[in-house]
C-alpha cells in the first residue's frame, strides 16, 4: 500500500471542524486548565491556614509553659566571676571556644608553663 494514499484516506475519514468549533474546544480546554490551577491554589491556601493555626496553638502552649515554669534569670558575662586560678577574660575574634581552648593548651605546652599562669587577652584568626 502507498503511504500517501493511507494518509489521504485517514484525513478524509475524520470529521472536519470549523474555526468556530476549534475555538470553542480550545476555550473549554483553557478553562479546564485554569479551573484546575484555581482549585490547586484553594487547596494550598486551606492547608496553609491549617498549618498556621496549628503553629499558633503550639506557640501559645509553649508560651504558657514558659510562664508557669520559672526560668533562671539570664546573667550578663560581666556578672559571672572568674574561675579560681584564671587570669581574666579572653576576647575571641571570630574563633570558636573549642579552637581557642586548643590554642591556649598548645601555647602552654610549648612554653612549658601552667595554663593558669598565662594571660591571654584576645585570640584572632588570621586569614
Task: Please give a quick description of this structure.
This protein has a two-stranded parallel sheet.
What secondary-structure arrangement, pairings included, does this model have?
Layout: H1 3-13, H2 19-68, E1 91-93, H3 97-111, E2 122-124
Parallel strand pairs: 1-2
Task: Write up this protein.
There is one protein chain. The chain is mostly helical. Among the domains are: 19-68; 91-124, no CATH class. Helices cover 60% and strands 5% of the residues. It is built from three helices and two strands. The chain has helices at 3-13, 19-68, 97-111, and strands spanning 91-93, 122-124. The protein has a two-stranded parallel sheet with strand order 1-2. The chain starts with a helix and ends with a strand. 0% of the residues are buried. The model has no long low-confidence stretch (mean pLDDT 82).
Annotation keywords:
mainly alpha, 2 strands, 60% helix, 5% strand
Largest sheet: 2 strands, parallel
Q: How much of the polypeptide forms β-strand, as a percent range?
A: under 5%
Count the beta strands: 2
**Unreliable runs:** none
Q: Termini separation (Å)?
A: 80 Å
Instruction: Report the order of strands and helices.
Output: HHEHE
Helix content: 55-70%
The oligomeric state of the chains shown is single chain
Secondary structural class: mainly alpha
Mean pLDDT: 82
Radius of gyration: 38 Å
CA-based shape: elongated
Adjacency order of strands in the biggest sheet = 1-2
Contiguous helical run count: 3
Amino acid at each position: 500500500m502507498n503511504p500517501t494514499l493511507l494518509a489521504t484516506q485517514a484525513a478524509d475519514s475524520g470529521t472536519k471542524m470549523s474555526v468556530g468549533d476549534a475555538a470553542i474546544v480550545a476555550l473549554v480546554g483553557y478553562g479546564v486548565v485554569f479551573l484546575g490551577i484555581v482549585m490547586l491554589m484553594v487547596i494550598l491556601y486551606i492547608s496553609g491556614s491549617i498549618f498556621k493555626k496549628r503553629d499558633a496553638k503550639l506557640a501559645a502552649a509553649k508560651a504558657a509553659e514558659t510562664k508557669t515554669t520559672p526560668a533562671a534569670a539570664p546573667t550578663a558575662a560581666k556578672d559571672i566571676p572568674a574561675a579560681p586560678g584564671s587570669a581574666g577574660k579572653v576576647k575571641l575574634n571570630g574563633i570558636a571556644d573549642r579552637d581557642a581552648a586548643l590554642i591556649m593548651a598548645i601555647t602552654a605546652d610549648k612554653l612549658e608553663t601552667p595554663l593558669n599562669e598565662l594571660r591571654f587577652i584576645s585570640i584572632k584568626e588570621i586569614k
